[in-house]
Amino acid sequence: MMKMIVAIIRPEKYEDVKVALKENGIMGMTFTHVTGRGEQAGIKFTSRVGEFVVDEIDKVKFEIVLESDSDADVAVELIRRYGCTQHSGDGRIFVLPVESSYKISDYISQ
User: Among residues 38, 19, 37, 44, which one has the least CA distance to residue 29?
Assistant: First the structure.
């Protein structure tokens, strides 16, 4: 069954992940610059005037559809390896089943 990988990573790791996927034969992907927050609920800063929380953190979202479980396993491993900074907030990876996929260009009107 086809799988969709949805990965949310730090923007500074975007290029590393994209290159690693491409070098391993994973070409098709969609990426979007997004904002959000994870379990840490934002970043707290303290200054002379007090504390404030930034809870809209820039991330990059990858969406990749792959033909097999083994391809999905490779993609997950690459994203984990090249997306990791070893700090809280590195991101998340979700693996979802894909029921079907259609190329729009293959449509033939009748």
Answer: 19
d(CA 33, CA 16): 15
3-state SS class at 38: coil
Burial of 84 (0-12, 13-18, 19+ CB in 10 A): middle
**And the tokens for 56?**
């809209």
Q: Are 19 and 62 in contact (CB under 8 A)?
A: no
Q: Is the distance from CB of 73 to CB of 87 less than 8 angstroms?
A: no
pTM of the model: 0.81
3-state SS assignment for residue 89: coil
Q: What is the pLDDT of residues 87-106, one digit of tens each?
A: 888 899 999 999 998 888 88
